[in-house]
Here is the input.
Amino acid sequence: MWAGFAGFVSAALALDLRLVGNAAGRVSVGAALKWSALWVMLALAFCGMLWGYLDAELGRQMANLKATEFLTGYVIEKSLAVDNIFVFLMLFSYFAVPPEFQRRVLVFGVIGALVLRAIMILVGAWLIAHFHWILYLFGFFLLVTGIKMLWFAGQKPDLEANPALRWMRSQLRVTSEFHGERFLVNQNGLRWATPLFVVMVMIGVTDLVFAVDSIPAIFAITSDPFIVLTSNIFAVLGLRAMYFLLAEMADRFHLLSYGLALVLMFIGVKMLAVDFIKIPVFWSLGVVVILLTGSIFISLLRRPDPRPTRVGA
Here is the structure.
């Protein structure tokens, strides 16, 4: 199963990086919608094959449990990936990155997200296997993160206050203009970073932050490393196609951050009560779906505030 999944991911990633987007890095909304739907269908097909394999090998009860764990984890991670895309959009807008230069940065963003999640999943699985109390730490972290996200929901982060960006500006020589898709250039015998390099580093920091949030969340659903890894990878695959889709629709889902905050708070409480209250995985899936679809539905009914408050990032 591990070898088969690794082969599939390699082929899917190569296909995504080769076909999604032309040389200019542009993808129409229609094409992005088709590609995004394809990745979702592949995830559902994988879930069906996993269920069939486990049903034949280990019985119907185990097949139902693992399939539900996969779906719940996939929905949670896909939702957090959407929030990640909104940050990408904000970074590209803040640095005024031309659309034709965004392609290469998105490639590194997707690969970085995959690598970071794989590493953190393996580390997290080892920690939970050896230190059960780490679940309480994860739960507390998610609860605090959810409360903070709910408190600042709807407010625009102030990138000028971001410590990573301030450090790069103070330590690096950054050119005033873009040099195509290049990250580094030589000028007057000195090595200079381009604004695109700064954007790439900021996206890497964003990947790390979202990985720290998302990995504990999936461990609240299951401690099975295979389910954790596959649900995460499927959520990240197709991230570029979803970016081009949401680039034209970001303002329509302005209340999604409230739904995500409530999801993180629910999962945090679930982890804190793991040894006292057993919440069935199917119920967890229902709560997550209701919170997310509810926030999306209300977003479509209610127009966003045209003047969002800025907060420190």
